[in-house]
Amino acid sequence: MPQDDEGNFLKSLGFPQVRVHHSLNHFDFTKPGRRILVIGPMGSGKTEYSARIWRDSRVARKKGDGVAALTTTGMADRRNVFFIRYSVDSERFTDYPPDALAYRGGYERCGDMIAQIRSSFELDALIAAHPEVGTWVVDEASFYDERIAYVMRNWSEKTGAVFIFPTLVLNFRREIFNATARLLLDTATDVFPLTAYCEHSDCIADSFYTYRYYQVDGIECPALYFDPLIIIGGDREKDDPLEPNYCTRCDLHHYMPGKEFTFFILKPLGETASRGDLAPLKRELWQIKNEREQSDLYRFFKERFLDCENPEPKNMDSLRVDCIAERALIYLFAEQNLVTADQLIRIADELRLDKDYLEKRLSDNRRPLAL
After folding, report:
1. In 36-104, which residue ranges form alpha helices assigned H by DSSP?
2. Is the Cα torsion angle 267, 268, 271, 276 positive or negative in sign?
3. What φ, ψ does residue 156 adopt, rounded to 5°?
4. What is the pLDDT of residues 154-181, one digit of tens each?
5. pLDDT on residue 45
6. Which domains does the chain have, with CATH numbers?
């Protein structure tokens, strides 16, 4: 029945005209071969979505043989759910039991149906060792190597297994997180987008984005565009000006200073360095570290965010953080491959950059160097 006719029919029976929304169904374990991408900013409930599936599976497993026939393909029963956690991100779960599927507000105990892995090869081995499992929840799938998208696709097509990957598709820059995230989008059969309230104190709009910021002397300082892409650690609030905080923000309150500077100035300096001329890059990094207000970075920000028709002074607070020169160098080396390892070491030595910070963040981004 068309929606208008349905409304008129209900009205003719004395019911009020109200908008009826579709309820959130229990998980359907009867449909084989699905690859379900659950996306949304931090705090939007991606892992809680996984916990709901875990709870649904406990109910479904109590059903009889007739249901088993509907939920099983070969040896794999999709009511058997196995949870995969990214092992490098284990710092997030220090307050929970080792077998916990943890989310904001609670957790589920998974017993021996949970594991930590580092690569798609370990996932391959786990699936082969558990042919009875029909539903695999791979948390933070974007953090793995690109091959994982095809591992999940091939196993789902071969065995009828369902793969659920709750993950960030957009990084803090509001860009596709990485090549793995792109392949997950390409190979998914279903996408569930989740949102959260914007966490700005004066806003209740829908938020689609993860926002990174630092606390410096009690001031919220937006992360620069060229901040290291991956920073491993917990998502609890921190006052350390070198350790980021995260929240969800809408378009209006997601501050992203430094993107234009990166492509107008920083990346060209890296390209000049890649041709063997390090002097311009070293000069800019030295000024950022020692005479910040004399740097091109400061002049660019002042013109862009202060001396303009619509000032955005909040973006200037991004310059309060430490190790900005180190962040710029990491971006050029780890993401753009414009600076070689030897050049990075030489610049770090000559400018007396913070080597502890450099080593830690390079390791986070899988480009470890001993400085």
Report:
1. 46-60, 65-71
2. negative
3. -65, -40
4. 999 999 999 999 998 999 999 998 999 9
5. 85
6. 28-194 (3.40.50.300), 197-249 (no CATH), 259-364 (no CATH)
